[in-house]
Design a protein that fits this description.
The complex is a heterodimer of chains A (about 280) and B (about 325).
Chain A lengths: L1 H6 L1 H26 L3 H6 L11 H9 L2 H31 L6 H13 L2 H15 L5 H25 L4 H8 L4 H12 L1 H17 L2 H6 L8 H9 L6 H21 L1 H13 L2
Chain B lengths: L1 H13 L1 H4 L1 H6 L2 H37 L2 E2 L7 E2 L3 H8 L1 H33 L5 H13 L2 H11 L6 H7 L17 H26 L3 H9 L4 H12 L1 H17 L2 H6 L11 H10 L4 H29 L4
Antiparallel strand pairs in B: 1-2
The chains are: A mainly alpha (about 280), B mainly alpha (about 325).
Chain lengths: ~280, ~325
């Protein structure tokens, strides 16, 4: 490394610092605005709040119906994560360990499904879902998320399974374990990291998702938090301090979860960017 | 068929002793095999069912509906290629397509450039790399509606950054309506989307750069190369597979962009931020023209497919091995 590696260091630090400011500065402004009064935002849009109005969070919670919306989103995100993890793990196991006919065709189908635009199937899906009674129902949205996020998750778990030695399973079979026993007691514990990554990434995507939610959920009682924050900022007289407070309430769980499990998240997204 | 039989065959060849005794142990090889195959179908069934119901089924239905006049409720009426003919003549589709092309060029240059440069500088740090990586990634985990809320107030003509900078001696920035001025709106929406997006590119580029053999850098350093030449002659060629893949995905995603436009401007003002997806959405769910919207969906899918096929052809011609 030596001297040549250090030559560009000051410039590097400046550029990296500016990029960090670009990433985080707007979020700081957002957090400050959540603590200002609406009048103060007009006179002091970017600086620190002069008086800290913590009451904004209570008002925003009430006006944007955050309580019910956050609960709806929690249900949708957890159900999506659990469902995608289950669907993908079972399918990947069938493709790599059980004698599922048509190997290569499955991979191609998964690749095509995970890269098809949602817009392609959105329009007929609305009328299908109305016919099936799934339109404007949280479970209808959850099923769509299962379908949309499971192809990538299956590819992820499959790649992990392919790299895993089969010896343990063979040994368990020789000891008389049935296929289900091998799956539950030998394979599942070993592929936990991949399943966890798939679950986390799809749960986060479901929590943040907008286009499908705005299309398939009309009733305010069923709205996920993305929709209530959306309608809260569309009003004619938008109170930005309250919108900021509501936005922070929506973002906080995600940022905390990301910071505590950042390695799992980043690994999951990196594999999404490279592996497919 | 090929991959799976190949792997099974390989493992059989590698461990014939371990695989052989099993059927003998059970005594009924055919029954066990059939059972395994049934189990395989059971395990893949949930994926198959939700996929056919949500993606493959309605996707194929879209192809059919694109040749019909349909309001989403009554019986579709077959109209041949009328929807496609209308789409080709439509000024709204034409200008939306132009916006998608501009959007693609912007995203191929600005976020990719920022991600590349940031990742390169970060890859040369020996400390604090992980911290920067997390900081840059935070906007990417935020929802579209959250980053839209963040930027709508910063870009606000009365109380945003323009007004603040105007009082600091840049008076021409006063009253600039970034999202409300037709000539600025598309760029502003792209800018907001870039803020949320570039950290994702950076993290992937960084992962790719970290797998480059350090000996290659040592070699050019001995020749007296500086950071810029290292970047051009080592980093860029070595991460080419990632670069090409993300470029390809950038093109595809740029033609499908919907969320940011819909949340920030709904395609306005005066259609200046309309993209194919917002046109499709409006035709389907406001004008109840599901048949015509399906034709627009076909155009979108055709662009995605052409991008992938073009990439495959290029890869074959240049003999790339990724």
């Amino acid at each position: 490394m030596g001297t040549t590696a250090r030559r560009g260091q000051p410039v590097s630090w400046i550029v990296l610092g500016l990029l960090a400011l670009y990433a985080l500065g707007p979020l700081l402004v957002f957090a400050f605005n959540a603590l200002k009064s609406a009048r103060e935002i007009d006179s002091n849009p970017l600086g620190l709040p002069q008086s800290w109005s913590w009451g904004n969070f209570a008002v925003a919670w009430e006006q944007a119906h955050m309580g019910g919306a956050l609960l709806n989103s929690l249900v949708i995100a957890v159900a999506t994560a659990a469902g995608v993890a289950l669907i993908a793990t079972m399918a990947a196991y069938a493709m790599t360990r059980l004698d599922l006919p048509g190997g290569g065709a499955w991979i191609l189908w998964l690749l095509v499904s995970s890269s098809l635009p949602i817009q392609l199937f959105l329009v007929p899906l609305v009328s299908w879902w109305s016919t099936l009674g799934l339109y404007n129902q949280p479970i209808g949205l959850i099923i769509i998320y299962w379908a949309v996020y499971s192809p990538f998750a299956t590819l992820l778990v499959r790649a992990f399974l392919i790299g895993m030695p089969k010896e343990y399973e063979e040994a368990a079979r020789l000891d008389g374990a049935g296929e289900l026993g091998v799956f539950a007691r030998i394979v599942l514990p070993m592929i936990r990291p991949a399943v966890l990554t798939a679950a986390l990434v799809s749960g986060l995507q479901a929590y943040n998702e907008f286009m499908l939610a705005v299309t398939f959920i009309q009733d305010r009682d069923f709205q996920p938090v993305a929709l209530s924050l959306y309608s809260f900022q569309q009003g004619f007289t938008t109170d930005w301090s309250l919108v900021s407070a509501a936005g922070l309430l929506m973002a906080l769980p995600v940022v905390v979860l990301f910071l505590t499990m950042q390695r799992t998240f980043i690994d999951g997204y990196v594999s999404r960017g490279i592996a497919v | 068929m090929t991959t799976e039989t190949a792997t099974t065959g390989a493992s059989l060849a590698a461990a014939p002793v371990r695989r052989e005794p099993r059927p003998a142990l059970r005594g009924r090889p055919l029954g066990a095999r059939r059972q395994r195959r049934l189990l395989a179908w059971l395990f893949v069934a949930p994926l198959l069912v939700v996929n056919l119901l949500v993606i493959t089924g309605p996707g194929l239905a879209s192809v059919f509906y694109s040749f019909t006049d349909w309001d989403g409720l009554s019986t579709p009426r077959f109209v041949g290629l009328a929807n496609y003919a209308e789409m080709l003549r439509s000024g709204a589709v034409g200008s939306a397509l132009l916006h998608n092309v501009l959007w693609t060029l912007f995203f191929l240059v600005v976020p990719m450039g920022m991600g590349l440069v940031g990742a390169f500088l970060l890859s040369r740090l020996r400390r604090y790399q992980a911290i920067f990586r997390v900081l840059y990634f935070i906007p990417y985990v935020l929802a579209t509606v959250v980053s839209a809320a963040v930027w709508r107030q910063i870009l606000d003509p009365d109380g945003g950054i323009g007004a603040a900078l105007a009082t600091l001696g840049l008076p021409f920035l006063a009253d600039v309506n970034f999202l409300g001025n037709p000539s600025l709106a598309l760029g502003s929406v792209a800018f907001v989307n870039t803020w949320q997006w570039w950290g994702f590119l950076l993290v992937i580029f960084l992962a790719s750069m970290q797998s480059v053999d350090p000996a290659l850098y040592e070699a050019v350093r001995l020749d007296g190369a500086g950071p810029v030449r290292e970047f051009w002659h080592i980093t860029l060629p070595m991460i080419r597979p990632t670069l090409v893949f993300l470029g390809l995905m950038t093109i595809i995603w740029s033609f499908l962009v919907f969320d940011y436009v819909y949340v920030l401007t709904q395609g306005g003002p005066a259609g200046s931020t309309d993209v194919l997806s917002t046109v499709l959405y409006r035709e389907a769910f406001q004008n109840q023209r599901h048949g015509y919207a399906s034709a627009v969906a076909m155009l979108l899918s055709a662009i995605s497919a052409a991008t992938v096929l073009g990439y495959l052809a290029l890869r074959r011609r240049l003999r790339w091995d990724i």
